[in-house]
Design goal:
Length: 434
């Protein structure tokens, strides 16, 4: 009986697969189109730090593993910082053809940030393909707006459709502020995932399903998942190998072999097209722009601010308090990632209270960051409200500026520096800050 049903389904699937394959071939989404991959790329905007479930293979120290980006850690950006990051990335690379939100937690455990980011990006880039990757628990209420925003692709990770198997994979699920565990957690998650998949297809959104193949846990079940999601209209399936991660329930399980993945793909392909070219997604890691720079960019900044301003007495060390600065050195980054001095700008006259700092903000309006060895509360506040982040730091100017441009962790950048954002490092030694 099962065999007959499978064969009938296979015939219907062949026609549908051809249609889907043609559609996916045309898309510029680098994940869906293996041919376009070398020339095109997806940029992930990490605006979603929280997660609403606990997968037993995830220790939350890296980006959502359902996205298959092991060992990638994204700094979290606010929606506006994310747009700023994208704008800068677009100026560096012509290859960005898809913008995605995939974590580092789950996009819909952070729905406000996720939806705001998608709105901002759609507003700025009306033609840009958008995609989202989620575990599906909280996706349902947002599908209509995703369709309105023309989010073209949604990836759902569905590791099981049988709650008895799901209970082995998920420790807990938090839904509507209530915690669920064991079989209840699995039942709820699977129900929401399948409802979301159905609704996505009704709304005309391309749906990819990811399955993490976990040996001994769900490897024998993946074909059943494939059959079910195909029946609900999923467009393509990606079987992801399981990699063990320390400090997780599954840390001692065997990893999935390439042969096992291949075998499961072959068996599942009777029901649904397979994504095979996508090994380990390094879309973000490969981007030439580092997130740290955008994370350090001011919250209110929407303009493109390519420069970093520095106050230093002799132009080698950062050793000058903001209140004492007579000029600011302006640095940029060239195509090779090297920091270059662009210009020196005069500081406004001392005195004049707040007006002086407003004038400085105008002088530095193309700078996202100002590096000084000390700063008072009042100027810091004025500069912050004008979109300039003030970082109090000491050290060799070129080393620090290059480090910031290339996304290094500031704490690792200098051995002896005291690093603060804003005025907290002001020791009162600086003059003329009023
Ligand atoms: S969905 Fe699972 S893998 Fe992704 S962040 Fe949450 S717990 Fe980790």
């Amino acid at each position: 009986m099962f065999k007959q049903r499978r064969n009938a389904s296979s015939v219907a699937c062949t026609y549908r697969q051809k249609k889907i394959a043609m559609t996916l071939k045309r898309t510029s989404h680098s994940c869906f189109n293996g041919v376009s991959r070398p020339k095109s790329g997806r940029i992930n905007l990490p605006v979603a730090p929280n997660c609403n479930i606990q997968c037993n293979y995830c220790n939350r120290k890296f980006d959502c593993l359902n996205e298959n980006r092991p060992e990638v850690i994204s700094k979290v950006l606010s929606p506006r910082q994310a747009l700023y990051h994208l704008e800068k990335a677009m100026t560096f690379s012509q290859n960005i053809t898809v913008v995605g939100i995939a974590g580092p937690g789950d996009p819909f455990a952070n729905p406000d940030e996720t939806m705001e980011t998608l709105r901002l990006v759609r507003d700025k880039y009306p033609e840009m393909p958008l995609c989202v990757s989620t575990n599906g628990l909280d996706l349902l209420p947002y599908i209509d707006e995703l369709a309105r925003l023309q989010v073209s692709h949604v990836t759902l990770t569905i590791n099981a459709i049988d709650p008895q198997i799901g209970r082995e994979i998920y420790s807990w699920v938090r839904y509507n502020k209530k915690m669920y565990q064991d079989i209840d957690a699995a039942k709820l998650l699977i129900k929401k995932q399948l409802e979301s998949l159905t609704r996505l297809k009704e709304a005309g959104v391309t749906a990819k399903v990811n399955v993490t193949v976990i040996p001994g846990i769900n490897d024998f079940h993946v074909i059943t998942v494939a059959s079910k999601v195909a029946e609900l209209g999923a467009d393509i399936l990606q079987c992801l190998p399981f990699y063990h991660t320390k400090e997780t329930v599954f840390e001692n399980l065997y990893e999935t072999s390439a042969e096992m993945v291949q075998e499961i793909q072959d068996a599942s392909s009777r029901f649904i097209p397979q994504m095979k070219h996508h090994t380990r997604c390094r879309a973000d890691a490969a981007m030439m722009l580092k997130l740290a720079e955008s994370a350090a960019s001011p919250e209110k900044t929407l303009e493109y601010r390519p420069y970093i301003a520095v106050s230093g007495i002799e132009g080698v060390m950062m050793n000058q308090h903001l209140g004492e600065a007579e000029r600011f050195l302006i640095y940029s980054m060239d195509d090779t990632g090297k920091c270059i001095l662009v210009s020196a700008r005069e500081a406004p006259q001392t005195g004049g209270g707040e007006q002086r700092w407003k004038e400085l903000a105008e002088t530095l309006k193309d700078c996202g960051t100002l590096l000084v060895s000390g700063a008072g509360n009042s100027p810091t506040k004025v500069l912050n409200t004008h979109g300039i982040e003030v970082i109090v730091i000491e050290g060799v100017i070129k080393k620090v500026v290059s480090g910031i441009f290339s996304g290094q962790d500031l704490k690792e950048l200098l051995h002896r520096s005291q690093i603060h954002s804003g005025s907290s490092n002001c020791n009162g030694m600086g003059k003329n800050c009023g």
